[in-house]
Amino acid sequence: MATLNSNYIAVVGLHGSGKTTYLAALWHTLTSGEIESELVLDQLDGDQTYVESVHAAWCRCEEVKRTSMLEETEIKIRVATRSAGWRATLAFPDMSGETFERQLESRACTEDYAQQFAGVDSVLFFVSADKQTDGIPIVDMNDMGEHDDVGPVLNVVPEEWSSRAVPLQVQAVELLQFFLRPPFVRKARRVAVLVSAWDLVRPIGIAPLDYLNREFPLLRQFLSSNLDSFEFQVFGISAQGGVVTGPDRDRLLRMTAASRISAVGPTPRTDLTSPLVWLAQNAAPGK
Question: Which domains does the chain have, with CATH numbers?
Answer without folding.
Answer: 8-132+164-283 (3.40.50.300)
